[in-house]
Design brief:
Elements: H1 8-11, H2 17-20, H3 25-29, E1 48-52, H4 58-67, E2 72-77, H5 80-93, E3 98-102, E4 115-120, H6 130-140, E5 141-154, H7 160-164, H8 166-170, E6 177-178, H9 179-189, E7 192-201, H10 204-208, H11 218-224, E8 228-236
């Protein structure tokens, strides 16, 4: 992903060893997501995939493998440093059906209806304009296309002190949406079949690892404990062929 989550309980142990075979070590080390979206997105040969906030490129390279030579995997990132790293990793991995684009997920540099599946790994929660991100995702998806993203989701209302803490925002937590809000925003943008699947609920022990950014405040650790989860969020753009013969 393209931003530093900086929280070990969120970013650790996301990929199986078999998934990483043949990938440059730099691509693996630069992965700071919250779930492995390529393992859950059900990608198929020939599809066009877009990764929002692609960072060092690991999810793009994994996606390119899954869609095969007849498909295409795009990575979108706003930083030249990450784009340079991702392109270097792509070259070292020998992946030819991937392309890394410079831009913001609030203004995706791809045409309308050009993508089959959008993935993202713990990045949408970092945007200050999530509605714009979801609207852009809807725009570039083909009719019947799918949003299949990993993200941090809030399980209950949080105290304002957490929301105001910018270090937690950088750590992928304070910018997260509550589950009901996430569902409502997707529906408002036009998505159907919205599903939020928990993949990990962060415990008090996980929250305690964040105590340095919370100044060691035990009550605040207690507030954060169990309030966040990594989740896999699925939604579909209406249209396209839904019959089994297609």
């Amino acid at each position: 992903m393209g931003a530093d989550c900086g929280a070990d309980p969120v970013t650790s142990d996301l990929y199986r060893e078999g998934d990483l075979a043949g990938l440059p070590r730099d691509a693996v080390l630069a992965s700071l997501g919250c779930v492995n979206p390529t393992a859950l997105a059900e990608l198929e040969p020939g599809q066009t995939v877009l990764d929002l906030g692609s960072g060092g490129g690991i999810d793009v390279l994994l996606s390119a493998r899954r869609v095969g030579p007849g498909g295409k995997a795009y990575g979108l990132d706003m930083t030249d440093e990450m784009l340079d790293l991702a392109r270097s990793n792509q070259q070292r991995a020998g992946v030819t059906n991937a392309e890394f684009l410079r831009g913001r997920m609030e203004d995706i540099p791809l045409p309308d209806g050009s993508v089959d599946v959008i993935i993202s790994n713990c990045v949408i929660n970092l945007s200050a304009d999530k509605d714009r991100v979801l609207a852009e995702a809807f725009r570039v998806l083909k009719p019947g296309g799918r949003l299949a993203v990993s993200d941090i989701v809030v399980r209950r209302p949080l105290p304002e002190v957490v929301r105001r803490n910018m270090e937690l925002w950088i750590g992928c937590l304070a910018g997260a949406l509550e589950e009901s809000d996430y569902r409502a925003r997707l529906a408002a943008r036009g998505f159907e079949d919205v599903d939020v699947e928990p993949t990990r609920i962060y415990t008090r022990e996980d929250a305690a690892m964040l105590s340095p950014v919370m100044d060691g405040e035990a009550p605040l650790v207690d507030e954060v404990a169990g309030a966040f989860m990594s989740a896999f969020i699925r939604a579909r753009k209406p249209g396209g062929c839904t019959c089994s013969e297609c």
